[in-house]
Amino acid sequence: MIKRDNAGLIEKSENILKILLVLFAGYYIAAFMIVVISRIAFPFELEWMEGGVLTHVRRVLQGQSLYVKPSLEFVPFIYTPLYYYIAAVFSKIFGLNFFSLRLVSFMASIGSLGLIWKITKRKTNDSVSAFVAAGFFAACYKLSDGWYDLARVDALFIFLVLAAISALQRQPRKLVQAAVFSMLAFLTKQNALIFILGMQIFLALDGRKGFWKYTLICWTGILIAVVTFSGLSRGWFAFYVFKLPFEHATVPTEWIRFWTR
Predict the structure, then answer these.
(1) Which of 65, 114, 116, 194 is the most exposed place for a label (fewest CB within 10 A)?
(2) pLDDT per position as a tens digit, 178-235
């Protein structure tokens, strides 16, 4: 009798905790949506790089090269160009303004919420865990200084990395799709090379076929993109995307502080 009562009490406590987790997750998702909707059309910079990103998109719309010799008029950022081209499409529809650019990031973040739900649901077969995982991502909005909806490359980059991970879960059927999303992630932000290496390690350790197929498709696509953009820009693409980032100083204190603060 006592064991039955304890089992019932534990089950009841678990259900209460699940309800609380769902409520908190729902709160943070709703708060994220409300904050973004309230500021997405704000006509001025929310972060110092947004104005520069707008200039990049303007150059795309005007048919000008992004990777050029630095001048007083224009110096490009050190990112790969996919976000600028997608934002240019949105700018043709909604006008060249911060709203168009932030809309790309907002939609990418919504997609990331969905992918996190999907990845977790597939792994745990539990809808509650999947919803809480998505809510946890939304709860980190403030922790990230609100970068999920800024006119920057980062939100789109995260979405594409998650899309590649989601596709890898269903290999080998979606292996080509995973490689394509990985290439697109690189074309959004070159940090994707770190994630691509991680995916290759996963495929190698997983033991199933797919490592060489993923590696060949992904790296061939990246190599073609780098050679093409570098050729069209007379080498400036490689200079901005690879050489300049390596000039960043290493700050050893951040190796620990990043994870603790």
Answers:
(1) 194
(2) 999 999 999 999 999 999 999 999 899 877 678 999 999 999 999 999 999 999 999 9
Pairwise CA distance, residues 215 & 203, whole Å: 10
Rounded to an integer, what distance in angstroms lies between the CA atom of residue 42 and that of residue 78?
26
Q: Are 157 and 111 in contact (CB under 8 A)?
A: no
Using CB atoms within 10 A of its CB, is residue 161 exposed (0-12), middle (13-18) or buried (19+)? buried
Closest CA to 86 of 109, 64, 56: 56
Residue with tokens 């190599």: 223
Distance from C-alpha of 184 to C-alpha of 161, rounded to nearest angstrom:
9
* Nearest C-alpha neighbor of 181 from the set 193, 167, 169: 167
pTM across the whole model: 0.92
Considering only CA atoms, which of 159, 160, 177 is closest in space to residue 168? 177
